[in-house]
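lol forgot to send this yesterday, sorry. struct tokens for the thing we talked abt
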């Protein structure tokens, strides 16, 4: 009985190890995407973000949008007005667009067929293991910048590339409903500040 349990433990651990190893093609695409965003050491892991957002498409008058400021350490924490947002799935959105999700050893990555976006066929990765349901990240085939991801019932489209402290990111995002392709939320990053760590007085 003991030998059987040890064998099962070994097989489970081995399967997990093998699952965490992406294909060479997936690894190469992830590496190019991370390099295009400034390199792994420059990715935004803990940061303060000021953003403008509204429901629907991008407003013609930015003054009509709402403003908020957050501190984020995705996918574990997102503090808004000093309060932690709990089981907010948007934490995984941030983890994806910062590309930090690609650096997690438990994230399983595989290449999938691309889609037409901005007149080009994207290069695409499907992420599972750490993100459920599966999330499909789409990259520009020339720049390797993230231009879209599809997750659950939504499609996120990114635009207006900016750089801050060596990290590249798209400042604007429009979320669309997957079935109708109608925009339902717009947000724009107005300011971003890298933090070495989140303030100790924030709730965890």
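and heres what i got for the seq, position by position
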């Amino acid at each position: 009985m003991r030998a059987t349990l040890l064998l099962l433990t070994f097989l489970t651990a081995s399967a997990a190890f093998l699952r965490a190893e992406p294909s060479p093609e997936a690894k190469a695409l992830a590496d190019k995407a991370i390099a295009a965003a400034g390199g792994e050491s420059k990715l935004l892991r803990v940061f303060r973000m000021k953003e403008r957002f509204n429901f629907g498409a991008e407003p013609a008058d930015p003054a009509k949008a709402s403003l908020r400021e957050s501190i984020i350490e995705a996918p574990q924490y997102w503090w808004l007005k000093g309060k932690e947002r709990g089981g907010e799935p948007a934490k995984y959105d941030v983890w994806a667009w910062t590309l930090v999700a690609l650096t997690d050893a438990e994230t399983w990555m595989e290449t999938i067929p691309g889609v037409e976006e901005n007149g080009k066929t994207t290069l695409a990765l499907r992420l599972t293991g750490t993100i459920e349901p599966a999330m499909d990240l789409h990259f520009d085939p020339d720049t390797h910048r993230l231009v879209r991801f599809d997750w659950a019932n939504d499609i996120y489209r990114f635009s207006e590339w900016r750089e801050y402290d060596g990290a590249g990111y798209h400042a604007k995002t429009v979320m669309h409903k997957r079935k109708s392709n109608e925009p339902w939320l717009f947000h724009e990053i107005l300011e971003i500040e890298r933090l070495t760590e989140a303030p100790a007085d924030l709730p965890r």
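The CA atoms of residues 155 and 176 lie 5 Å apart. anyway ping me if u want another try
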